[in-house]
Amino acid sequence: MSADKSAEKIETKNTETASAGKASNGNSSSDTLFYLILVVTLLLTDVVLSFYYYRNQSGFDMRWILAALDISTILSVMGLAGKRVGHFLTSMKLAMTMLFVIAILSIIGTWLPQGEAVLESGWVKNPLYDVYRTLGLFNVYQSRWFLAILYLLAFNLSFCIFKRLPTTYRHTLKPRVDVKEKFIVNQPLASVVDGAGEKGMGIARQSLSGMRYRIRPGQTGSVMAEKGRYSGIASIAFHLSFLLIGIGAMLGAVFGFDETVEIREGQTVDVRGTNLKATNYDFQIKYTDVMEEGRSTGSMPTKYSTDLEVFSDGQSLERKVITVNGPLRISTYNPVLTFLASLKVNFHQASYYQSDRGIVSVLQVNQGPGKSLIYLGFFLMMGGICFSLYFPHRRIWLKVSDSDQLLVGGRTNRAKVTFQRDFERLTSELRVKMGQEDKAHG
Amino acid sequence: MGNIFSHDLLTRYEEILFIVAVISYLVCSGIFIWYLISRNEKAAQLGTILLTMGLVAHTVALALRWGTSGHAPMSNTYESLSLFGWGIVLFFLIAQRFYPIRAAGALVVPTAFLITSVAGVFYQGPDIPLAPALQSIWLWIHVTIAMLSYGLFALAFGAGFLYIIQENLLKKNYKGVVTAFTLLFAALGLVLGLWIGSMLAEPVTVQDPITRTVGNDYSFSDYFRIFGGGFIGLVVLLGLGYFAGRGASKRSFSNILPSLDVLDEVSYRGVAFGFPLLTIGIVTGAIWADQAWGRWWGWDPKETWSFITWLFYGGYLHTRLTMGWRGKHSAILAVVGLIVVLITYLGVNFFFSGLHSYATG
Fold first, then answer.
1. Distances (CA, A) of A413 to A21, A62, A137, A223, A395
2. Contact A294 B280 (CB under 8 A)
3. C-beta atoms of A110 and B292 within 8 A
4. Does the model's ipTM exceed the 0.85 cut?
5. Chain B partners of A297 at a C-beta cutoff of 8 Å?
């Protein structure tokens, strides 16, 4: 319970660190005092909580909170030393470095045995075993510093998203339709068609509509044609999805549970962490022969299922035959709350084993309160990245100058050569059609 | 006299047709390399016809496998590699109808041959039943999308590598061409050698008593075999790469290759189209895992490596779109990226074992 409060405290402190960091440019004495107080508070909280955590190994898992405290402390120490924390946090270099570091740590995690597996491996006899274990190399993905790096990346990401918001807002909802001639000529791709005039403008507009550009005429005679307007928003949605998934994962780690439950046929057991009881009425396995060269070389289980009933306070909630890809999901609270916070308890058929007293069905029982957020994140992630990369934002401005020239200029945020092709098609079409018109007149 | 459509006979037909396809890819590799050197249009036509015939045989073989096994051919190393090779040939044949890229056959067809022949090494009969966790509609969706993204990353790699070659040829830096070829072949040799070495290793399987995930415990002699294999592969292909590089160091070779801008764009587009597919592949995998095991992410080696691949290409896109990298630097990243993809696709199944160890692809 104390953890909840401290989590809140940390969050407010993080935002303070961040905003103060952004503001401090040199270091005025009031800033220094502020940072000094912040560093001392954070450091004290961090040390006290760490001490408490490592004394009670069986207690509440606080690594998530400790990691956040660690990174906040480091950032405020940076602020105290006169570094510009805000600038550091928004930098692209930090993001790239973090991606690289996470990749390297993940590689270590796949190379060394993780979790309990290490106890059965040869690593136990290795002289460096204790050093590695203390460093958390046998539990990389749950180690305090891996989580700390994830926090740093999350801070970095939030800042980057925040920084991009105004530009994206302008590009999407307030496009620059009325532009000056100089603006068009200075675009990365620009072209001037002599003597094209208003007729050229008509041809260009037709050609651009043919290429599925959206045409927006302005007040001062300039015209803007664009495609893939939502590319920027989609990119932000994609990056936002990591934060959603991260928060969802954190909720799951702090408030959810994941238990392995073993039930023999006919047995009823308590599900730890809940007031639920589960009964296994019947366990079925279907074997299929493995054939090689036309004869059976053995058999393999291809289906197994448990006829499961779940009780709460002696009352039956639901009964279902669960299979590997067909879990039982039970809502124990009111349905609206369950939908919003995904409070369903899921019973998954994980595996089974033969014991002296019959076959034991192994179930994975879990509840992930962050799953709604995680699935929302998944949706944003897939939609965001597709829209952002498949439909890049392409803009072309057109204007007829005083000397009857048609000015054409355009830019894109991605796929330069493909855009160039659009642009060249437009200008060549203009030249060909204008040329034909000239001949007809002559 | 049994039924000519009996299960065993159909399996036999499948094997024969698969071998026919592999042989035709081998012959076509020779023809397309000859075409690149001689520019003889007749050779290209003959190659295309032979390749189409090989593809038809391959298609029938895959269809037979689908029929005899009762599920989409994506559940083991043989099926997934065979399907991969099939996809490469199919896309090449379609593309060469619309674009003048027959010369690329000298690179694409040998790749398809290599992949299908490796598939042959891992041949497994159709009667290995599907493990319970794989019996889901997600097998289809997840594997197909992931494979498409790998294919696009392979395209980005090819264009990126040719970019490096073309740039060096245009600068008349023939040493660079030889170095690029040598490095590529050496890396390929290292990967192949490590792979063969790891097949020779005999690790002890250990199981986590709580999560029940299985892990491998390698002994010293296993490491010796793995890295020894890697070293031998590296040395052998290093020599081969050197001679290939010498062969390509001719001014006329640069005329055959597309322009730098086109290669740069193709490489970028490969990543730009592959990355969203990889994202969808990972997310569908997470949704499937949530359905089967009740956890959407478990840092299983396959999951972790696909995450690393995803970080890598995410890095590629950021360096390009926000830091303005172009040309050579992006090309190098696209080339290195395929090595990461190969580790994810194949390496993980051989070096590590986890929940994905029974499921290649």
1. 31, 43, 41, 20, 9
2. no
3. no
4. no
5. none
